Amino acid sequence: EIQPTMARRCLLLSLLSLLSLLSLHAASAMVVGMRAQATHSLVMQHARYGFALHSLRMDEAAATQPGATSEEETTESPSKAVATESLPPASFQLLVEQAAAATDAAMKDGTKLMEVEFPPVPLSKLEDSSISAYDLLRSNLLLAVEFCKKLVLSVPGEGDVAIVLPDIAERERATELLGDKEPWPKMRLWALSGGDEEPTPFGFFGSLIKGSTMVEPAPWAKVYVVLSVSCSELPSLRSLAEAAPEVPIVCFNLKLDTLRGDLGLPTFPGKDMHHSFLSRVKPVYYMRPRAYSLSLSRPPFLISYAGVLFRCYPEGFQTLLDRGRGSYRRVNVNAQRPALGEFKAELTKALKLQDDIGESAISQTGFKQSTWWEDNADCLDKSNDWRE
């Protein structure tokens, strides 16, 4: 009776071992396919959920009317208006295509420093406490790969597209996520500090010796797409632009407005970083959603509204009011980028409140409605490209 029991146990252990080996083999076989599909998974997930920006939803309702505007569309300054057709797309896949087309058009016009800015995930996900900084980095990286795939096909000339990370550690993290330093043909990963050097235990001390602004341009790069650069790393980005002035640079979701707000603070670069460098960065694709509320002295006492400042080069800067369910009302089109205070005032006026309520609400916005870099009070900007 004992011998059959032992035999059954041995047979069971053998079966378990065989299943484990088969599982390991299947898992290793899947790794290659998973790596090849990694850059598509997040985009498909975004397309499935829709591009929700606060209450501003970019769903099929918006996709059925590309470039359409409502009968209530108004343009406050016809002399400043710029002919425009585009509206925010219905999915991240369409967004990436739109952003790549705008970037390509700007490069054909000779632009070398460009900004592409949009929320990397739906804001309903951004507000989720389970979303970490690594998740946002991963989202930006995968979207950047999709973006670069379009540039590989559209940008002429010899060379590859360089996806630039701040340092070797970030580059290695991106390599681990994508599975290779060359995640796509004619596309390579690069580091602002360190280039394609291999990581070493003393890499941190080496970077201190070299200096934070010493960068090594990629000799094979025909365009740089820069990710994850912080305010303290802006000098390195400027050094890259100076070392390779003929190679276009795309600032991909760097949140330059947030970085500008840190300039001049202790341990950060001075405000001259904007005047001499960031003022030359042209926003070729810019999507900034904002949500506001108005306090009233009569029912309904509180009005919530949302809109998006949208620009797709070579078109103008559109002030779009969210009407819900993927529908927008184009409030105004500016040839130059409006300050956020001006953008908010345009949205508030478009609500068409009663005169006394509307005037009271607008007057509560305060005297100062712009930042120091929007004012340029001392006329220190070397260029006006960041507004145009």
UniProtKB/TrEMBL annotation:
Ranges for region Disordered: 62-83
Signal peptide limits? 1-29
| Source taxon at top rank | Eukaryota
The yes or no answer to whether the keyword Nuclease is present is no
Q: Which residue intervals define the domain DUF1995 in the entry?
A: 89-344
Q: Which UniProt keywords apply?
A: Signal
Q: Which InterPro entries match?
A: DUF1995, LPA3
What PANTHER family would the database entry show? PROTEIN LOW PSII ACCUMULATION 3, CHLOROPLASTIC, PROTEIN LPA3
Q: What is this protein called?
A: DUF1995 domain-containing protein
